Structure formats: C-alpha cells, structure tokens
Amino acid sequence: MSQDFHFKNPIEKVWHGLTDADTLAKWVMPNDMKPVVGHKFQFRNEQWNLIIDSEVLEVDELYKLSYTWAGHGINTIITWTLKHEDGTYLLTFGTNRIRERESSFPWCQTRLGEDDWRT
After folding, report:
1. CA atoms within 13 A on the CB side of 6
2. How far apart are the first and last CA of the chain?
3. Tens digits of per-residue pLDDT, 64-108?
4. Sign for the pseudo-dihedral over CA of 55, 39, 6, 105
5. Cα separation of 98 and 2, whole Å?
6. Strand-pair partners of 43
7. Calpha distance 6→45 (Å, rounded)
8. Taking 60 as the threshold, does the pLDDT of residue 38 lie above it?
9. Paired strand residues for 6
10. How many structural domains does the chain have?
C-alpha cells in the first residue's frame, strides 16, 4: 500500500512532523520516537490498550524514514519518503504488507492533513 500527500510548506517542517515525538503524537499516537537508526520505540494508545513496537531502520534526513511496525496483528515496515515536485513536496507513505482495504492506518488518510504542522 502507498499513499501520496502534497505539502506547500518547507521540507524541514514536514520532516519535523514525521520525526518529532510530540508532533507525531498529534496525528498518530503518543510515542518515544527518535530518528536514529537502531532506536527502538513504541506507539501507545491506552484508550484502545494498543502498543506498537517499532525500530528505526533507515534515516536519510529530510528525505527518507523507515521503521518497523509490530502489533495489533500487523508486522510491517513503514517508509516515508519526501521529494520536491512541481513547487511542492511529495510525501509518500508506504508499507510492505498491508493492502489499502485492510489498512489499520486510518490516520494516514484522515489525520495527516488536519494538524497545524502541515500548513
């Protein structure tokens, strides 16, 4: 599955939305993410009794972030890539094992565009 998003704001702001734990918590869930290869972290949602174990696999600052996502019956790799395209930045979300109709990532289609880091 993959999904594309276009942003007019600076690439640094979009990257911050992907890699800053506090900002990431606004549109995914609370976490202790750090954009450092090998860093193990968790996404947590106490209301749903949900814990997602993750590990950062790849960081190409401002351009690519990849980490594991294991929990709630899903074991996959999440990859975010950023590139300049026609005056905007194209952010691509990709995962290696989830088909769009089976997605447990509703925030990818709804919440990603709602928070103030996008504008």
Report:
1. 5
2. 25
3. 999 999 998 889 999 999 999 888 999 999 988 654 444 444 444
4. positive
5. 9
6. 31, 52
7. 28
8. yes
9. 90
10. 1
Domain holding 67, by residue range, is 2-113
Q: In this structure, how many other beta carbons lie within 10 angstroms of the beta carbon of residue 8?
A: 10
Q: Supply 85's token pair.
A: 């395209």
Whether residue 118 is contained in a domain is answered as no
Q: Within a domain: residue 45?
A: yes
Structure tokens at 45: 């949602």
Which CATH number belongs to the domain containing residue 74 in this structure?
Answer: 3.30.530.20
- Work out the burial of residue 15: count CB atoms within 10 Å of its CB; fewer than 13 is exposed, 13-18 middle, 19 or more buried: buried
3-state secondary structure of 116: helix
User: Is 119 a domain residue?
Assistant: no
Residue type for position 98: I
